[in-house]
């Protein structure tokens, strides 16, 4: 990995999960904090789905000289999933997914916030265990399910996004499509 400091930690003993959850609500302030401390250096921010490396402007010329394949998150994903052995190389063959996100989802994020919040609350109410005392919970599967529910809500809406047959069919499809 990259040897760069992390922004957003309140103490050296703070669990990464707390920082990652704080990122969801305070990403901008975490980036500002990192920029204030390490303006001309690399720094990282911890997210639940992976760390983000913040690169200062002085490295832009170096980045301009890199190929799209070297800088592309899609090509990185393809490499991480086994390249041609995984069957996902077609993601790198066109940019239809990226264009859909850029032209349809991103411009409408403000309109989607209420649906996202509503679906996450539904997920908390239905999928997370009700607890009166301290209870150990495996959060990874719960967060995956929450993300899955929110994506269904964005792409197909109510009531289909909560239909058990739909959820099972799409979940199984994603599972089997990524198996090698």
From TrEMBL:
Gene (name only): idtK
Membrane topology type: Single-pass membrane protein
Needed cofactors: heme
Name of the protein in its database record: p450 monooxygenase
Keyword presence, Cell membrane: no
A GO-annotated cellular component: membrane
Annotated transmembrane regions: none
Entry keyword Signal: no
Pathway assigned to this chain's UniProt record: Secondary metabolite biosynthesis
Subcellular location: Membrane
MF terms (GO), sorted A to Z: metal ion binding; monooxygenase activity
Keywords: Heme, Iron, Metal-binding, Monooxygenase, Oxidoreductase
Highest taxon listed in the record's lineage: Eukaryota
Entry similarity comment: Belongs to the cytochrome P450 family.
């Amino acid at each position: 990995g990259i040897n760069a400091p992390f922004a957003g930690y309140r103490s050296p003993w703070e669990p990464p999960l707390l920082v990652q959850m704080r990122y969801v609500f305070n990403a901008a302030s975490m980036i500002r904090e990192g920029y204030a401390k390490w303006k001309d250096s690399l720094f990282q921010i911890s997210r639940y789905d992976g760390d983000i490396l913040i690169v200062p402007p002085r490295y832009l010329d170096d980045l301009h000289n890199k190929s799209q394949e070297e800088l592309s998150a899609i090509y990185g994903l393809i490499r991480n999933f086994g390249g041609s052995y995984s069957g996902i190389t077609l993601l790198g063959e066109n940019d239809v997914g990226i264009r859909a996100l850029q032209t349809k989802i991103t411009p409408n994020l403000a309109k989607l916030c209420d649906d996202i919040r509503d679906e996450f609350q539904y997920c908390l109410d239905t999928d997370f265990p009700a607890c009166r005392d301290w209870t150990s919970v495996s959060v990874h599967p719960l967060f995956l399910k929450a993300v899955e529910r929110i994506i269904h809500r964005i792409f197909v809406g109510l009531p289909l996004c909560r239909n058990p047959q739909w959820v099972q069919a799409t979940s199984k499809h994603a599972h089997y499509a990524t198996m090698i």
